[in-house]
Prior knowledge:
Layout: E1 4-10, E2 14-20, E3 26-33, E4 37-38, E5 44-46, H1 48-66, E6 73-80, E7 85-89, E8 99-100, H2 108-116, H3 120-127, H4 136-146, H5 148-155, E9 159-163, H6 164-173, E10 177-179, H7 180-183, E11 189-190, E12 195-196, H8 198-203, E13 213-215, E14 222-224, E15 234-241, H9 242-249, E16 258-262, E17 266-273, E18 284-291, E19 294-303, H10 307-316, H11 326-331, E20 340-342, E21 360-362, H12 370-396, E22 403-406, H13 413-423, E23 427-430, H14 435-448, E24 461-464, H15 470-488
Parallel strand pairs: 1-6, 6-15, 10-13, 16-22, 22-23
Antiparallel strand pairs: 1-2, 2-3, 4-5, 5-8, 7-9, 11-12, 14-15, 16-17, 17-19, 18-19, 20-21, 23-24
Amino acid sequence: MAKYVLSVDQSTQGTKALIFDEAGKMLARADLPHRQIVNESGWVSHDPEEIYQNTLKVVRLAAEKAGIAPNHIACMGISNQRETTVAWDKNTGKPVCDAIVWQCARAADVCAEIEKTGIGELVRDHTGIPISPYFPAAKMAWILQNVPEAKALADKHQLCLGTVDAWLVWKLTGQYKTDYSNASRTQLFNIRAQQWDREICAAFGIDADDLPIVTDSDAVFGETDLGGWLSKKIPICGVLGDSHAALFGHGCLEKGMTKATYGTGSSIMMNIGPDYAASKNGLVTSLAWKYKGQVSYVMEGNLNYTGAVITWLKDSLGLIASAGETEALAKAAHPADTACLVPAFTGLGAPYWKSDARAMLCGMSRTTGKNEIIRAALDSIAFQIHDVIAAMEKDTGIRLPVLRVDGGPTRNDYLMQFQCDLLNTPVSCPDAEELSGIGAARMAGLSAGLYDDRVFETLTYSTYAPGMKDALRLAKLQAWRQAIHLTVGRNLEN
């Protein structure tokens, strides 16, 4: 009987299910969006129950598309939007509030109070992460301070606090677990000691004993019948945060291998091997995974607005009807126009770390029109990724030989060529888009013994080569640095 691997990729905009055969080939995909709940203060939330119900639905849809019987599915992997934080009642399994999305900065005041205690350096040293409302620690503290039911449950040790992976594993299996990649992004996990950090948890008002069990990324997290759909339960045996899953899907298992995921936001991640190293240039250090019993560390930079900039062009400005229009319009823009967009709609992430920054469109001239604004929006994605990779190269001393990329915006030929030209480094795009889902499937399939290492050879890549003259590249980077200086109030070094 043929056996198949199921992968669920729970992302910021929606939930995808993918079915893979025994050779690692994707047979079918199904997705459903969920609501983006944004209030008048700009707080961004998701409904955890909607996400769970969509997970059950897309799994069935994907199996129908693939034309396979449910009992042929052998195992399951999960990749998830990271940092988005869920709180639920341990007794009833019901959320006590909507999930706080990674983009949401409502916990900025919590971070300001934590900073006053002088614990900032210890937090950075132990977790690899600077104190920021971006991460779950502050989001969890905000929930405890602002949701009375959460505080009452926490006082009785009946509150579950976790990221989306822990929520889905709980709902699907009844187990309260997370993996090393997701734990390392909470700002509560000591990535040197590889355990919850009780001192940091206490500083945020969180009891470490109330957090999920941290499990190897390729371990069995529990068994599920997917809401009664399967007659026999299957193991969930691969869980990774989405960016880590994309790194794994690309086969970036060796030190120095780097990928950039272009999603709503972006994660740029370099595998730095089995030894911890701190960033001195505005990046964070996290755990890639714990796989085959060994951890790998990564250097990472996260950006709030990359693909979301294209959504802004469409939904807020009405300049385009679909993302696919941007390539031709950007290519048609006036070549000498100097309009520059800094998309700090919810602050700026790495390497600037300015949560109170606000977006700016500057450098406009009489030639600036629709096409030029669209090009500036696409360019802003490439500029931000350039700055993260420049910081990575300073931190590690590794000159990037190639950047592997994934995500919907990588299908934009203008954007990929501009990215390649800015970096003056080849950029390789795989023939498949869903690298997070592919990574989770590969982790699960390897864990279950269905795959071997040859599965990493199943992707093919097309590569862009740099072609921009040095003088033009340097002029564009200088204009970007001036725009960043205006936005964050400090110069950006070369």
